[in-house]
Specification:
The structure is a homodimer of 223-residue chains. Chain A contains nine helices and eight strands. In chain A, a hairpin with a 4-residue loop joins strand 2 and strand 3. Chain A is of the alpha/beta class and 223 residues long. Chains A and B meet through helix 3, helix 5 and helix 9 of A and helix 3, helix 5 and helix 9 of B.
Chain lengths: 223, 223
């Protein structure tokens, strides 16, 4: 089975070290929530985030929302021919189960993700939709055991998305970065067997996902 | 030049007939805004929308956000080889100018759109980013004067996205629906020269946009 991991994704709850910052407490009061249960979001917590390590790569749940929606809207996912995971920058892994319809409304998506970080899973009608595990990227690879780990990055070998899809075949794991700028973390990079770049200029994560899954779909349908 | 219109899009401000409904006034109080300046949003105004005509096709700014971001994140748009428009269900047209970077954060997108509906344009540093015109779909076609109007709809002739891109060529206008279900309005349908369906099952608007623009890019780059 084909798998996709959105890696080093800028999705996490507000870190303990900044829960008392005014830009965070103000947002918590507005939402009537405990600060540590809210998603870290640069749109609201910019001032507080200046203190964080790797701040430029964190707090972009909007970007992860687009990337995940792109993946789960594809015929491959809908037909259970694709498994989808999010690996976060703080080394958690979200397992998206089959037939999950993620909300397009950001407000609802935020609610689902906050529930996931709090309860470690989201169920509906007794069916598991998503799970959160405290495992690293290498641990995730160890569980999936793909034949090949294919990374998409501007640092990779120039290749068309068609070429990458042909190389990937059926049992690969595709890795796309879930951060606004920069490159994969060393722990992620080390696991990648082939690194490809499918465009001259850098592309948004959701565009890379749309293109590579579309080309994989064409390859898998011909079989 | 290639053009894309997101047509009959579920994007509008709260209609006058429901500004006094409790689900609307509550939301207006929370946002500290005049109700008629807010975007109509099913996530918040569901109860009020039951009274509206065509309610099932309205109030989905999240869906239009995804579709627009998909279009403006493509290399074709970034290289000024694609013009992007939104035609709304209430017969307004949004002209997206060149080099506009739409916010991925829904909260910011909502703010920009509310500003657009209020002021009829959005500028930055003296540069026009977006305009809102009170014109119909046929009027828009009359202004763009495309060689061919190509609609994407499940009711169309079964064709691959590659085939549609080859037919479309350089001076066509592509039309994708910006509504959650159903088909183009009669006024839009009448203007479409060729109607194509690029998938057996229905696809989200943003997926159709990603695929057709990617295939058009391949055709245009070969020239």
């Amino acid at each position: 089975l084909l798998s996709l991991v959105i890696a080093d994704a800028a999705l996490e709850t507000v870190p303990r070290s900044i829960v008392k910052h005014p830009s965070v407490t103000r947002d918590a009061a507005r939402k009537d929530m405990h600060a540590e249960h809210m998603l870290l979001d640069r749109s609201y917590h910019h001032a507080a985030m200046l203190k964080l390590k790797d701040a430029s790569r964190r707090g972009r749940p909007d970007l992860v929302h687009f990337a995940l929606l792109e993946a789960t809207s594809t015929p491959l996912y809908v037909k259970n021919m694709l498994r989808v995971y999010v690996h976060t920058i703080t080394d958690s892994v979200i397992i998206i189960h089959e037939n999950v319809r993620l909300p397009k409304s950001y407000f609802r998506f935020e609610g689902v993700m906050e529930e996931l970080f709090k309860s470690k899973n989201v169920q509906f009608d007794g069916k598991m939709l998503m799970e959160l595990k405290g495992i690293s990227f290498p641990d995730l690879i160890g569980r999936i055991k793909p034949e090949l780990v294919v990374g998409l990055s501007r640092l990779g070998v120039k290749s068309s998305a068609e070429e990458v899809a042909r190389i990937a075949g059926n049992d690969s794991l595709l890795v796309v970065g879930g951060f606004p700028r920069g490159h994969f973390s060393p722990a992620v990079s080390r696991e990648i067997d082939h690194m490809h770049s499918i465009n001259e200029q850098s592309l948004e994560a959701h565009v890379v996902i749309a293109r590579i899954l579309y080309e994989c779909e064409k390859v898998l349908e011909k079989k």
